[in-house]
Every structure is written in structure tokens, then in C-alpha cells.
Amino acid sequence: MYIIVDDRESVTNSYVGGLVREGVSSIGFSSGEFWDWLQSASEADLAAVDAFLLGDTDARGSLPRAVRKRSAAPIIAVSGQKMLKNTLELFESGVDDVVHVPIHLREILARTAAIARRRVGDLPRPCENRIQVFFNGRDPEIEGRALTLPRRELRILEYMVGNHGKWITKTQIFNAVYGIFESTFDESVIESHVSKLRKKLRDRLGFDAIVARRYVGYRLNIPAAEVLDEPMQELDEVGILLNRVHAAPAAYPAGN
Question: Which residues form the Response regulatory domain (predicted)?
């Protein structure tokens, strides 16, 4: 979920609408509304934030440090002034990146993903040799071939790749896909999305990449290459093999 902070309602509405069309949940705040929300937001709500976009607001100089006290999500300043002095001041205020309008939303998504990657290190995730996502709306590549996915399923896959090997709850996925303020849909919609995504990955990979456990959640589980190199006769035998390799339970996410 993206948080857009700008005192111009038309601007926040424009960004929210554009991000929704890209399949990314978002919400816009004025600076005053954002201060109130930041002070009262729960840890679970803040964990669902992918990035903060700071637009035109008098409080932009003090907001980044206040945000950083509560969240590690990337902070990107969106500026209409292409002056070095202004750009340096924004970086000094604590933002992670500065972009100048006009800019395509997919570039902002890509920049957010790049910042997040740098923070966890440049080593590839264990699954990236078989599943590659780009975090910018581009179709993912499964075993080197593009796989077209509906935007909700793509967002779920991105979230799972970013948390590869970890158990993630239905609530965490719902917040990442629909946003913490969504009231139109029920969390149960995630079960349908994950089921469809799971089948598509199984058809392409030849095994269940998504493990589901009742009352716990879901986990993207890509086995080591040497496991898949063993002879595979039937799909159900692969499932037995994977269950045996990953018999040790993973740590539960916080709050479970």
C-alpha cells in the first residue's frame, strides 16, 4: 500500500487513481490528516505500507524523520521544482529518493523496489532463479518465460516473493493488496486469488510453490535446485518430496 501526502486533494486523488489502475492499493492524506494517522496507526497498519510519497506540503521538511521513527518503508519526495538546492534540501530532510514531475507511476514503483532491495542486500532471493518479479507492473517470468497475471494475483506474487520462505497471514496479504482502509471486500477474497495463482504456478513449475496451512497462512516455498533435479515421475510424488524436504516448520509471523 502506498501513502500519498499532499495538501492538494486533486493531486492525491490523481495518484490514488493511477496506482489503483496499476493494481496497487493506496490512500491520500493532507499533511494534517497524515500527522494524525501516523500517531495512531498500529504496527500492523504501518507494516502494510510499501512507500510514502510526499508531495506539496509545508510540513515536508519535518515529515520524513517523523515517518522514519515508525516505519522503514521507502520515503519518496515528489517535486515540481527541478532545482539542485530544492533537491538537496529534500534529501537532507531524510527522504530516500526525489523524483520530479511529470513521472510515470511505474518508475516510482521501480524506484521503491530498488530502495527495498538495497536495504535487504543485493543477493538474489532463493526463488529468483525460477520466479522473477519486477515490482513495476511488468509480467513476472516463471522459469524464464513471461506469465500474464491479473493485477491482484501479480501483487500477491510480488508480496510473496518479497517474503519468500516466511509464513504470511491472509490479513497481511489482504492489507498489501487491498489496503488497510478497504471495507468493500472481505479478507476471504484472498483465498480465491491465492488458489488461482497457486494453480498457475503449479502448471508452470510442476510443483506447488505456495504452501497453505490452516490458521497460519501461506508461504512461497521454492526448493533448492538440487531437489528439483531428482527424477520426477508423478506430480503427487513431487509434493511428497517437497513436504519431506521442508518438514521443519518456519517461524510464525509476528502476531500469530
Answer: 1-116
